Amino acid sequence: MIVFTRTASIAPGQNLGAMVFAREVAVHIKKTTGVQLEVMVPVGGNPSRVAWTTRHENLGVFEQFQSTVSADMAYLQMVAGGADNFIAGSLEDSIWKLV
């Protein structure tokens, strides 16, 4: 099982906008790919962050998911429209193998 996580730091004063955006992305991904995207916020540490996570059977399935999302113009427009909610350059992706 492959677990993909993307985190971003929320821009000052944008918590509500970032949370609304994060949920909209999750709904869109589920609707267009069938993949459940979970939205998470930290319990400790810097509270001005959000994370999205997905699980995939293997790297091949994950790669197909990434290809589908990367070609989705509605998703790309959504991401561009939500950029002001986050600190530029704060996006961080990680891919983990569940053991």
Termini separation: 8 Å
Q: In which range does the helix fraction lie?
A: 40-55%
Order of helices and strands: EHEEHHE
Count the beta strands.
4
Count up the helices: 3
Helix and strand content put the structural class at alpha+beta
Rounded average pLDDT: 97
Low-confidence residue ranges: none
Q: How large a portion of the residues is in β-strands, by DSSP E?
A: 25-35%
Shape, principal axes of CA atoms: globular
Q: Which strand order does the major sheet show?
A: 2-3-1-4
How many strands, which pairing sense, and closed or not: the largest β-sheet?
Answer: 4 strands, antiparallel
Walkthrough of the structure:
This protein is an alpha+beta fold and 99 residues long. It has 3 helices and 4 strands; from the N terminus they run E-H-E-E-H-H-E. Strands 2-3-1-4 form a 4-stranded antiparallel β-sheet. The N and C termini lie close together (8 Å).
Summarize the entry for a quick read:
The protein is an alpha+beta fold.
Topology, pairings included?
Elements: E1 2-9, H1 15-33, E2 38-40, E3 49-56, H2 59-70, H3 73-81, E4 92-97
Antiparallel strand pairs: 1-3, 1-4, 2-3
